[in-house]
Structure formats: C-alpha cells, structure tokens
C-alpha cells in the first residue's frame, strides 16, 4: 500500500512553530498549488488549492529557519486525516500532509536548499533555470534520487 503526496507550491503564510513539552518541534503552514485549464467555452481558468502541511523535529526546525510566506517549495509526505472536538464540542475533521522531505525551489541569497526528515543531509539548491524540465533534472541530480514527476 502506498500513501505518498508530492506538492510544489508557494507558502501562504509563515510557518507556525511550536515546541512541545517533550522537546519535539512541530511546524504548521499552508501551501497553494495552482492549476490552469480551459473551460467548456475555451476560456482559461485558474484553480488554486490550499494544502495544510505539518513537519516534525529537525524538518520543523529547518522550516522555522528557512521558510517564509511566498517561498516556492517541494513537499513530499503522507496524507493524514484527524478528528477533534472544538470548544463547542462539535466534531471537526482535518486533512493534512505530514511532510518527510522539503526542497526549496526558489533562489535566496543564503544558499539554503533541500532537507529530508530521514537524514540530516543538506543538498545544494539547483541552479536557477526557468525551464521546468531543466529545473527537475537539476533537483534529481542533486538529490541522487530518481522520481517520476511529470515535468
């Protein structure tokens, strides 16, 4: 069975960072993904979807250090669903992506880049390139991973 989510989008807000009593760090933020399509009248339409992201431990610390509203990021993780009760004792449901990998895709002077929750390695940010296929190839070369992203 597979539960894998891959998103590329812009942060909608700065990460919210919390430090729990047990010392664990958690980061929460949202990212926007965009899709363009032609409707039945041949008009271009833009659709924006918002995704809630959660990061834990070292990945959350890196999010605190490097992420800010507007940054373009690659997020890989798993889809989770939670149920909780609000202050009025009403059941609420939330869907989140629990991230295990983060890659910064936009350029920033600091030279920061990509991080994985599975290890503490830092991967150099790919060279700036506006073509989608070249940017993907650069990311794949730098992470020593092969993937089947459709761009």
Plain-language structure description:
The protein is mainly beta and 151 residues long. The chain has a single domain (5-143), classed as OB fold (Dihydrolipoamide Acetyltransferase, E2P) (Beta Barrel), CATH 2.40.50. 15% of the residues lie in helices and 49% in strands. The chain is built from 2 helices and 8 strands, in the order E-E-E-E-H-E-E-E-E-H. It has helices at residues 57-66, 132-143; strands at 5-11, 16-19, 25-38, 44-56, 72-85, 91-104, 114-116, 119-123. It has a 5-stranded mixed barrel. It is globular. The relative contact order is 0.17. The model is unreliable at 119-149 (pLDDT under 50).
How far apart the termini lie comes to 25 Å
Low-confidence stretches: 119-149
Residues in β-strands, percent:
over 45%
The biggest beta sheet is recorded as: 5 strands, mixed, barrel
The CATH class assignment is: Mainly Beta
**Helix proportion of residues, in percent?**
10-25%
CATH architect. name? Beta Barrel
The radius of gyration over CA amounts to 17 Å
Overall number of strands: 8
Order of helices and strands: EEEEHEEEEH
Look up the CATH topology. OB fold (Dihydrolipoamide Acetyltransferase, E2P)
Largest sheet, spatial ordering of strands: 1-3-4-6-5
For the record, what is the CATH homologous superfamily label? Nucleic acid-binding proteins
Structural class: mainly beta
What is the mean pLDDT?
80
User: Number of helix segments?
Assistant: 2
Total domains = 1
Globally, the shape reads globular
Please describe the topology of this protein.
Blueprint: E1 5-11, E2 16-19, E3 25-38, E4 44-56, H1 57-66, E5 72-85, E6 91-104, E7 114-116, E8 119-123, H2 132-143
Parallel strand pairs: 4-6
Antiparallel strand pairs: 1-3, 1-5, 2-3, 3-4, 5-6, 6-7, 7-8
